[in-house]
Amino acid sequence: MANNMNNFKNFIISDVCSQFSAGMLLAAMNWHAIQSYGSNGLIARLTNINLFSGFLVTLCMVKLVSKYSAKTVIISSHLIRIFFVALSLLIYCSFGKTYSSFYFLALSNGLAWNIYFPASKNLISLLSRNLDTVYTNGIAELSMQVGLFSAGLVSGILYKYIGFSMILLIGIILFVISLLSILKINILREDIVEEKVEDKKNLSYSWSLFLIGIVLYLPFVGSNLLNTILPGYVLENLGGSSVSYGVIDMFYGIGALIAGYTIIKLSKYLKFNLLIIVLFFSSSLLTYLLIFNNSILNSCLIVLFLGFAGPSIRTLIYSEVMKKLSSYYLGELMFIWNIFNLALQILSTYLLGNIINRSGANIGFSIYGLILLFGGFIYLTIMSKFEKD
């Protein structure tokens, strides 16, 4: 128990540094792209590089994840991050503003994130044995958002005062710190050879768990679309700057921070099915309100709730899944879910980039709202089966 607690603390430190760096680089990349080239199409292209590279690496990892420990997989993701961000920095310092520096940053996020995130959930499952899974997932979500919530604002300020290249350098340093913290995790052999659920029981869960995984990842699809929509929306609809973009982006993280703490409390008093349905439909409604909005303050408040809803849905579903499956099975299942998540993101982002360029950011929010509405209806149809299992 003590060993797992120390390991969990090291994981939290690593996750905060990693997520802060990733969020800071993503916000800086998107703003630098829109400011330098004035093209929503470029941002959509960068997002597609992110998604396609993630899709390909996820296909490979489905078979490899059972052969390597979650710790080893996470270490490899950090090494990929450091390499590609350093390469982007080298190109930027040598040749100035080029498309390739953007492309390597997008590739870094696409490869590393889609290796890291499923493996991190596998590691959390292993480290949180004999603990309340809502609590451990809530704390893990909280730690991730501590890094992400301030990254947008900090990135906007740093971009204005020290420039894009220094942001890349800071990002590399933070990824190195994250890597060192992961290396401190010491998982005993007896923790790895844990008690497994009977094969037949796992097979009985397979269909409902598969569908739950699709619902689980729809908020990811939505947040990814928000990253594509937001720079052009702030610049064109709100007339904002890099700082106002960073502030609005930060409010998504603040909402997720609030979710990491409050969802632990709410789950003790309300049914998780009710919470998930309410979060899906209310966030869909608020997304449509952004279409008629021209206030930065209102944008911050709506994005705050969207940031609260997505992580809350994830925390609740992850917790239920971890009750039904051992970490041995969870790792591979996470990568399978991620394949379908990325396929949906690739399709939606490709269509969205072209549509936004022709029709503006408001149509993007319409699509975002439809995706959340779709998630709510799917969950309504399968929640009784999932709860029964």
TrEMBL record:
Keyword Cell membrane: yes
Keyword Transcription: no
Predominant location: membrane
Annotated TM spans: 12-34, 46-65, 72-92, 164-183, 203-222, 242-263, 270-290, 296-317, 329-351, 363-382
One GO CC term, this protein: plasma membrane
Protein name (Swiss-Prot/TrEMBL): MFS transporter
Entry GO MF terms: transmembrane transporter activity
Keywords: Cell membrane, Membrane, Transmembrane, Transmembrane helix
One Pfam family this sequence matches: MFS_1
Domain of life: Bacteria
Compartments, as annotated in UniProt: Cell membrane
Annotated source species: Streptococcus gallolyticus
Membrane topology: Multi-pass membrane protein
